[in-house]
Amino acid sequence: MGIRQTEGRQRLYDSVLDTIGDTPCIRINRIAPAHVKVYVKFEAFNPAGSVKDRLALNIIEAAERDGRLNPGQTVVEATSGNTGIGLAMVCAAKGYPLVVTMADSFSVERRRLMRFLGAKVVLTPRAQKGFGMYTKAKELAEQNGWFLASQFETAANADIHETTTAREILGDFENERLDYWVTGYGTGGTVSGVARVLRKERPDTKIILTEPSNAAIVSSGYVNTRNENNQPTESHPNFEPHPIQGWTPDFIPWVLQEAIDNQYYDEMIPVPGSDGIEWSRRLASEEGIFTGISGGSTFAVAMKMAEQAPQGAVLLVMLPDTGERYLSTPLFDGIEEDMTEEERAISMSTPSAQMAAE
């Protein structure tokens, strides 16, 4: 094999926003069962590092088109991080001020990334969960005349996955098997938008949805109350805090309700956060694929499906983001900053550049 060569993308981009989407589907070679093929759609290739770049762009551009967002108007949104980071990138590129509300339980690197991109981050008490930060965003929008991005209710969310994510999957698997598509949910935009297309154009593909086992709010059968704007009016009684940041707020979003009402998924499989951490670490150390706990959790469910899947089955797994926004979370517990004993022994095996013992 000769040296790898590249030739560019044969185009120049007018804006960072033009690079959103067209993320790759990558085969898993070392940790998947031998009798199946497993691919991951790696959304960390988006410019701000997550699947939420897609909805952030469409929320802003849809509001620009219909006049709900005026030039220079402040945008406000409640987010666990990825949507806020995506919105911060979009607002920076388009010149909108952004205020994000976020519970203080989410990783500190997320709030620092948003601030680095020019956003203001208002923290809310973790005891009030997602509903608390959501209420704060609504209050700020109403009091100040700001544009509320409304990722949990807006049609712009699922629509962008219907027109981009789903179409990319169809294009990448054209003339190929696709037996299972596996995804988690936060707002529900990915599953609702992609499933609209797969149900029509790849009806044999089984859609597998997953949620945290200790916050299995969809599986509970109880739907939280909503107001006339489809906004939640209560915290879901079956919610418990979980380590899968970005998944499952403490209410069932209106965007997700479409997938529930239309039976867009064939199975709902809960997953413990600990499994997500384990598989995220394995994806990194054995496949070189660096995703967060949400990606690891989705992959954990896919591995369960793969074990029982028939010979030759093909699975596609959504990996929502990069692992870099989990540095201060349990995902990195046990990952040392200083040299381990094994690393120190390697260093001591030659005489130069020795670090003093701690």
Query: What's the CATH class label of the largest domain?
Result: Alpha Beta
Could you tell me the CATH topology label of the largest domain.
Answer: Rossmann fold
Number of DSSP E strands: 10
Basic shape = globular
What's the quick description here?
The protein has helices spanning 52-66, 82-94, 108-116, 129-144, 155-172, 189-201, 254-261, 273-287, 293-308, 341-348, and strands at residues 25-27, 37-42, 75-78, 98-103, 120-124, 147-148, 180-183, 206-212, 267-271, 314-319. It has 358 residues and is α/β, with parallel strands linked by helices.
Would you write up a description of this structure?
With 358 residues, the chain is of the alpha/beta class. The chain folds into 2 domains: 16-50 and 158-332, Rossmann fold (3-Layer(aba) Sandwich); 52-148, Rossmann fold, CATH 3.40.50.1100. The chain contains 10 helices and 10 strands. The protein has helices spanning 52-66, 82-94, 108-116, 129-144, 155-172, 189-201, 254-261, 273-287, 293-308, 341-348; strands spanning 25-27, 37-42, 75-78, 98-103, 120-124, 147-148, 180-183, 206-212, 267-271, 314-319. It has a 6-stranded mixed β-sheet with strand order 1-2-10-7-8-9, sandwiched between helices. Helix 2 (82-94) links the parallel strand 3 and strand 4 (98-103). The chain is globular and about 65 Å long. It starts with 24 loop residues before the first strand and ends in a 10-residue tail after the last helix. The model has no long low-confidence stretch (mean pLDDT 95).
